[in-house]
Amino acid sequence: MELSKIEKFIDxxxxxxxxxxxxxxxxxxxxxxxxxxxxxLKEFYFSTNTSSxxxxxxxxxxxxxxxxYHKGLLKYVGVMLKGKMEVLTDQETKNLIWKKGDIIFYKKxxxxxxxxxxxxxxxxxxxxCDLKTENFDIQ
Amino acid sequence: MELSKIEKFIDxxxxxxxxxxxxxxxxxxxxxxxxxxxxxLKEFYFSTNTSSxxxxxxxxxxxxxxxxYHKGLLKYVGVMLKGKMEVLTDQETKNLIWKKGDIIFYKKxxxxxxxxxxxxxxxxxxxxCDLKTENFDIQ
Lengths: 139, 139
Hints:
- 2 copies of one chain form a homodimer.
- Helices cover about 20% and strands about 50% of the residues of chain A.
- The first copy, chain A, is an alpha+beta fold and about 140 residues long.
- In chain A, strands 1, 2, 3, 4, 5, 6, 7 and 8 form an 8-stranded antiparallel beta sheet that branches.
- In chain A, about 30% of the residues are buried.
- The interface of A and B includes residues 20, 22 and 28 of A.
């Protein structure tokens, strides 16, 4: 599996799934909009609410995974990336991924204290297609 | 939110997502076929390979969540159930959820040692729709 093919696959998906570990040591998962920005397969940026449950969880425990999948008529493809999630609230990063339409979610705009950025950094990944699984590392 | 509506929502989904915690204390997620059987919102049965990574993880740490979601044109609905996952290998349970077509995945049929059952028992849940979230307990 070429990593460039995985990048193309991820770019085609409209939804991503982000996983965290909660205070009771249970895995949690949530569908999110696709990442706003990525650097190869190494870094992914998502926008979210500073007050959200997920932000609290990642501050307590940065261990995370993100997941992309597509179920077609004939085959199913899934990519899980494992790594760490950071919660970024600096204005520079907030500006970086802000889109005009975000005002629906963050009434005070790009400086809204309830708007922040989740930055995921990949350590390794797992690719699934047609009953076959392949692990890969990300440098 | 009425729980019966959540049950109907879950029955409509073709895919479920199951979450576990791996040996390095990272959350993992994987898309699976829909559960083969459920008792209300309390118990869910999935078929899987005894040799799979997920089975190993649940034996080490039964903390789990399962997730169902649907993204429509106008709204997005997600349901996360948190609880425990058991790995069942007794023949009675294996018979319970076996379907003829499973022979594709388990060549030796319903007694195949590589065929087993994941039984999820719910403790509580979280329902998301249209930017609103609601927690609920399952008795």
